[in-house]
Model the fold of this input.
Amino acid sequence: MHVSLDTLRRWDKVGRFLAIRRSGKRFYRLSDIDKYLANLTLEEADLFLLAKKWASSAGATEPDSLFYCQNSAVFQSRLIKLEKTLGTVSGLENIFPLIVAITGEIGNNSFDHNLGSWPDISGIFFGYDTNRREIVLSDRGQGILKTLKRVKKELSSDEEALKVAFTEVLSGRAPEARGNGLKFVKNIVMQNDIDLFFQTGQAELNLKKGDTPLNIQRTDSRIQGCLAWIKF
Amino acid sequence: MIIELKKFGTTLVSRQSGKEAWAAFQPVLGSVSVAEDVTLDFAGVITFSPSWGDEFITPLQEKYQERLILKNTSNSSVQATLRLLEEISKIKFKLVK
Done:
């Protein structure tokens, strides 16, 4: 649900989302959580959960038009809107170009590496909330392992592929000279007050300022393509 | 010759648009004389990323080398992108204020 324990306690107290009390502890029914998430309006919805659900669901459908960029031209125009919005947020005067630049690199990567090869739905989910200071992108593309395996056949896991993507100058579109976008993203996050969660397949990366080495782990949930969550 | 990057847009982030910019600018570059400097002016650019830069600045650097001068590079995304391009291409850009 991506809310804090204090929020859950407060919601229980005011009757917004009730807990079941046993032995002085609060418990929740899974069905109540599912019902709560299903009934959120798009404005109140958790962008990360929406994007993750879209990228990981078995059934392929287009996301809500509010978040759907079916081609790179739509993404570019929405990115410029994000740039204008972030440029007015107090405290971001120096780093908003960096936030927009890494958002652009991640979103454009989805289009560049899946052009003509989208497994089902082409395009990306792109949403942001300046009050919560977050940006979420996801795609239902081929994922990093499949893309990089074309040029580095020895890659055998999502974790290895994710590490290579963020640390080596290696392009899934060789012989074109590419493959520096995610290294740029890593450098920016490690040097600024920006947090990044990035998942592809069953590998996830959590990155923040000063992190070294990269914290990459295997996760149970699977994303068909890529999912990125930028917090600033 | 002075190239004002803002004339290509203020949000320069995708490879596709960088590649288009490079292709579209070839006839203009044809008028640069043998000993002439080429100054790339970043004034007015708001967001700049390696994908666009790699398609436009990397070939420009290869073509003009020490005759390429970069100006008004104080924007944080411009600086971060130039640092990465220098690292990857093993080059050092000539910067002026």
